[in-house]
Design goal:
This protein is of the alpha+beta class. It contains 6 helices and 5 strands. A hairpin with a 2-residue loop joins strand 3 (about 125-135) and strand 4.
Length: about 210
């Protein structure tokens, strides 16, 4: 799917760039005085690209508006598919494990995600951990989100995650590498603040 998407992106960008370059260059050349061929849509520097007659030529035909609506609908659907495909991070369902005998084995992606998240959650100062695998089954990528306690140094948490949790996941699946993107944020202790406020109020009432 990702390979198809990359191909579609390259072809679409190439076609759009080619059309813009050809049309823009031709309009600029005609505007500077170049003689266009007889079949070109732009005849001279004072000519418009589409005249009123050309724009309304097929309006009276019964097939015109259904074709226009069908083409526009198709373009909208293709644009939506392209947008969703680019924004969506596809979850990796299986990971190919090298068993050493040439055959290999398949490991469920969810299982490796759960192991990685559970291992990361056991690190000192980590309140919550979430893991998500993307990429190819023979070359997975990890996306890890950690919620840290306020006293934890983010650099230390990242070091422990890399040296321990990611290393364990990589070794358990017999992977050559496990690249990861890590997002860190600090947990909020609203309950603790409320408790301190209540304690302070209680002490103030006793003193009063």
């Amino acid at each position: 799917m990702r390979a198809v998407l990359r191909t579609v992106n390259r072809v679409a960008l190439g076609l759009v760039g080619l059309v813009l370059a050809v049309v823009g260059g031709a309009v600029l050349a005609v505007g500077l005085g170049a003689s266009p061929p007889s079949w070109w849509i732009h005849d001279g520097p004072h000519d418009v690209l589409l005249t009123t007659a050309e724009r309304t030529r097929w309006r009276a035909e019964t097939w015109w508006w259904p074709v226009v609506l069908a083409v526009l609908t198709l373009l909208v659907l293709l644009a939506l598919w392209w947008l969703v495909a680019n924004l969506r991070r596809r979850r990796l369902h299986e990971v190919l494990v090298d068993t050493g005998d040439g055959a290999g084995a398949l490991l469920r992606g969810r299982a490796l995600e759960h192991v990685l998240a559970a291992d990361a959650a056991r690190l000192d100062g980590v309140a919550q951990a979430h893991a998500h695998l993307t990429g190819r089954r023979d070359a997975p990528d990890a996306r890890v989100r950690l919620v840290l306690e306020p006293h934890v140094n983010p650099a230390d948490a990242l070091h422990h995650l890399t040296a321990e949790s990611l290393a364990h996941a990589r070794d358990s699946a017999a992977l050559k590498a496990l690249p990861a993107k890590v997002r860190l944020r600090t947990a909020r202790h609203r309950a603790e603040r409320v408790g301190r406020l209540r304690t302070a109020r209680h002490r103030a009432e006793r003193v009063g």
